[in-house]
């Protein structure tokens, strides 16, 4: 089959690789219907994370079950499934505590070092899914083509935006600012609206993303950043700032801006992968009582909550995809996101 | 009148100083009935915080109102009052949000730079209380002498221990570990029990404090620290750690231990004044989804909640005082706490 392999900085190739086969009784083989490029895939693409040797890449996918192992009981061949961006058993203590990203038996896509990980990623024709009963969520029936992008966001960005909002404690009436206008930031706007926030500020200076943010529920758009962005936010909320700030970037500057913008006693919900940024200023947090909570998003547990609203059309997070390419053009997909020509690219094998 | 003045490292003196007088219509003059030494007073005492010139010290007190300014409406001469360790108006946006330590008009004891601060502290015979209506809480009637230590803890340590527990999200059934066996740590144990924690581990290697922790509700005592302490805690809670860890010290080591002990998705509630420790490891927090929340405790807002239980004897946080001295022996009070001969010293003017 064909799959995407990263060879080094800005070197993405689609190559012929061995077809995946069942290795454990808990595995399933899934034919990928749609996959995508994640903002975090850009870290190795840009060389911020070093690629020592060529390896598979990708971790967001939806598809159809083609084979199941002898121990798989909750799936059938032909099921349409959503795979989260990680592998989990959905039964261990951490999974039951809602932190399936810390699954005691789970793992990750793209490296094969045990029963909880898979060499395959989403950016290919097929994947071996470990711990398939725990990892995959079945979508009832056969979803229409129009639904596919929306379903695909449940594998990562929509669940991650939702996790930012949940970690920030967004509830009915909350005032919220979202730092970051990538796909996750936009989904955080949508999630905040869904949770009943009374006012949502999107921090963005990109016209198309501002428009999407507004249609996702943003009541205000602030293009300023850094000190100016903080000052604008404070001004907009009685001089003290919004209740919650959602950090959806992961740089030193974005976290700093988030922490300084939240009102005293407020909360920062963060999901931006910290890209070598500094540590959190604990004395500032102490003085302002601004809490920080978040991390790698346990999206598996959110799929069941969000799926019905995607299926009935109330939630349309798939609108973050502004480019669709065939798998063979994966290199162009990365370039388009890297150069900010696209917010999020969908790949069709 | 006589009041405590710090002159430098390990140089505490009780001196004759001018009697306080009303300066603003919102002031009250309070005769101090009992005051105490705070763990945070030890930072300047030990020279960790530099003392450039002699100044008053102390910020925990209960007493009797002797005079009120023309704008004070909620207090009468003769009222027995509790003063929190800071000054606040109890009406601004931040106060209404439950963060009176960030009061827009408030301030601190021991420095006189506006209507929201007072040169006086608790460790003297009298204090000028700014924004008296907002700052002071009236205790009904005339409390017995036995009640005074318990009431005094509401000015800081009991409210601060409670804030740790609230910030950590302790609720019925939570599993909790408390790092720090000082007065605040012990009060955090008591607060966790009050909030319904199912299991409370006190981290302590001090026999008398272990015993007090147990009588405050600790179900377990762990003397190990650092890596060993983390391993013990993980072991005790199914290998993953407790839901909540309350950090009540403020050093690099204690915060590190707290962050590494909490289970994935858990929470650290912190109230230890960060003493030049490092910043928080955001990548660790990202990977584990352990949140961090806390800071300088808005105890003013907790007094009304805790006071009834102190008055009827259900809550006895004053048991943290293990030494009572006359004001004139303030220097010995500091030395006893510094050398850990006493957990918390009460001063009687």
TrEMBL record, chains A, B:
Gene3D superfamilies (UniProt xref): Medium-chain alcohol dehydrogenases, catalytic domain, NAD(P)-binding Rossmann-like Domain
Cofactors (names): Zn(2+)
Occurrences of domain Alcohol dehydrogenase-like C-terminal (ranges): 183-308
Keyword Ribosomal protein in annotation: no
PROSITE patterns assigned to the protein according to its UniProt record, in alphabetical order: ADH_ZINC
InterPro entries xref list: ADH-like_C (IPR013149), ADH-like_N (IPR013154), ADH_Zn_CS (IPR002328), GroES-like_sf (IPR011032), NAD(P)-bd_dom_sf (IPR036291)
UniProt keyword list: Metal-binding, Oxidoreductase, Zinc
Ranges of residues in domain Alcohol dehydrogenase-like N-terminal: 27-131
Record carries keyword Endoplasmic reticulum: no
Domain of life, per lineage: Bacteria
Stated family: Belongs to the zinc-containing alcohol dehydrogenase family.
Name of the protein this chain belongs to: Zinc-dependent alcohol dehydrogenase family protein
Taxonomic source organism: Cellulomonas fulva
Species classification: Bacteria, Bacillati, Actinomycetota, Actinomycetes, Micrococcales
């Amino acid at each position: 089959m064909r799959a995407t392999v990263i060879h080094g900085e800005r070197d993405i190739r689609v190559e012929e690789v061995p077809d995946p086969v069942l290795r454990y009784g808990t595995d399933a083989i899934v034919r990928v219907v749609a996959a995508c490029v994640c903002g975090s895939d850009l870290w190795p693409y840009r060389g911020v994370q070093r690629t020592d040797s060529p390896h598979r890449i990708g971790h967001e996918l939806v598809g159809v079950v083609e084979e199941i192992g002898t121990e798989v009981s909750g799936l059938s061949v032909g099921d349409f499934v959503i795979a989260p961006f990680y592998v989990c058993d959905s039964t261990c203590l951490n999974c039951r505590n809602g932190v399936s990203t810390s699954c005691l038996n789970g793992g990750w896509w793209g490296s094969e070092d045990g029963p909880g990980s898979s060499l395959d990623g989403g950016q290919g024709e097929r994947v071996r899914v470990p711990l398939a009963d725990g990892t995959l969520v079945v979508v009832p029936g056969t979803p229409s083509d129009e639904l596919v992008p929306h379903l695909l966001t449940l594998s990562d960005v929509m669940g991650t935006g939702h996790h930012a909002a949940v970690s920030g404690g967004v509830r009915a009436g909350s005032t919220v600012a979202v730092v970051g206008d990538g796909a996750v930031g936009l989904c955080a706007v949508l999630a905040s609206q869904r949770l009943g926030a009374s006012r949502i500020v999107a921090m963005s200076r990109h016209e198309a993303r501002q428009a999407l943010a507004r249609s996702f529920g943003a009541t205000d758009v602030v293009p300023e950043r850094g000190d100016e962005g903080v000052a604008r936010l404070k001004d907009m909320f009685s001089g003290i700032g919004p209740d919650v700030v959602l950090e959806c970037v992961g740089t030193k500057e974005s976290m700093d801006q988030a922490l300084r913008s939240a009102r005293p006693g407020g909360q920062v919900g963060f999901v931006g992968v910290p890209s070598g940024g500094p540590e959190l200023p604990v004395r500032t947090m102490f003085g302002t009582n601004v809490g920080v909570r978040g991390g790698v998003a346990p999206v598996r547990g959110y799929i069941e909550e969000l799926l019905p609203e995607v299926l009935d059309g109330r939630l349309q997070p798939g609108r973050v995809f502004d480019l669709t390419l065939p798998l063979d053009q994966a290199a162009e997909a990365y370039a388009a996101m890297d150069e900010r020509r696209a917010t999020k690219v969908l790949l069709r094998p």
